[in-house]
Amino acid sequence: VIQETYQPLTEETAILLAKERNLFSENSTLSCTEIGDGNLNLVFHIKDQDGKGIIIKQALPYAKVVGESWPLTLKRATIEAEALKLFKKHAPDFVPDVYYTNEVLAITIMEDLSHLTISRKGLIDGNEYPLLASHLGTYLANTTFFTSEFGVDKGQKKELVGKFINPELCKITEDLIFSDPYFDAETNDFEPQLTSTVEKLWKDTELKLQVALLRKSFLTEAEALLHGDLHTGSLFVSKEETKVIDPEFAYFGPVGFDIGQVIANLLFQAIAFEEKSDSIYSQVRTFWNVYQNQFSILWEHDNLEPFARIDGFLSSTLQKYFQDAVGFAGCELIRRTIGLAHVADLDGLPDEKERIAAKEKSLALGRELILKRNEFTSIEELVTFLQTKK
Ligand code: ADP
Ligand code: MG
Ligand code: MG
Ligand code: MG
């Protein structure tokens, strides 16, 4: 199966590959199902007769978006595999094991997490994940600290920055998050009832300036290795476990971007289900507090930066991450409401009036978070602000 040239696997060749790699004992009977969502990647789930499984994720050389397809580099499979390995090293509890990768085939073979649930689905179904927020805080503190100049040798960091140049996937983010929602782009997708609000947003030069600044930060600030697509669809969860998957958008960017995506995707739950808002706000609080505590502990014990002991350096670093995160969260709220890729939390609301009202709320909140981000000096101020918006 392992060939000199790229070829999409089938359920049959995926099994042959698993056998060839000795991932199962010789006499096992294997079955395989393709379980991906089919836009960018194939995901094969292979199981033996006892239900023991593995996952093979393979990148496709194109993306199916807006009805047509555009070519997309297979290199992202290598980026994803390398990012998984590095994140695994720094946050072992929260990342699947990688068993094998192949650059030519653009595949990663990894731990089967099918005993867990994708958190977006679980949350929409009304389940609670009491450890999710603190797990994510620890995961992100570790991965962002140990890939920043505070936690890794500066020469090594520069090498990593070069290894994780990810221009095509970054361009998707630059367009879909920081550009298209702010003008009449073909990729946008929203209900006619939102038209007047959206047209106002397109003329909102104050807002567009702040988005331009956040976009510039995304384009230029190589603070740490980001996941780059850290929404609740990239998290496998149970009451006990959290695993972060799908880092194909990984690149060195502003730390607040990942933090902000987590916050925004939690907030969709509060926007869609009013009765959950207190619980969601307290999860946002826990997430940031755990991030901050863990990052501060690492700063204290593992900092390689000679200036680390200067009074105020840690607190201004955290303050910058936090304010950036608030702004990036605002961008995520807006783009998931009117841009190309939506979230089921909002789209799935069956009552039309309720759905439109939730989307209006998401747009208004997104706008305020972007404009006011530098006014928030603590998580309590953010939570208080969110509570007044209910
Ligand atoms: P994409 O980049 O195409 O979004 P993902 O990595 O998010 O791909 O995977 C798509 C889907 O495949 C996930 O939502 C999940 O259902 C399934 N999947 C991916 N990785 C695993 C895994 N390690 N174990 C079990 N299922 C997985
Ligand atoms: Mg998917
Ligand atoms: Mg995904
Ligand atoms: Mg993906």
From TrEMBL:
Record-linked Pfam families: APH
Gene3D superfamilies: 3.90.1200.10, Phosphorylase Kinase, domain 1 (3.30.200.20)
Location of the Aminoglycoside phosphotransferase domain: 32-265
Annotated keywords: Amino-acid biosynthesis, ATP-binding, Kinase, Methionine biosynthesis, Nucleotide-binding, Transferase
InterPro entries noted in UniProt: Aminoglycoside_PTrfase, Kinase-like_dom_sf, Methylthioribose_kinase
Entry similarity comment: Belongs to the methylthioribose kinase family.
Subunit structure: Homodimer.
Protein name in UniProt: Methylthioribose kinase
Source organism phylogeny: Bacteria, Bacillati, Bacillota, Bacilli, Bacillales
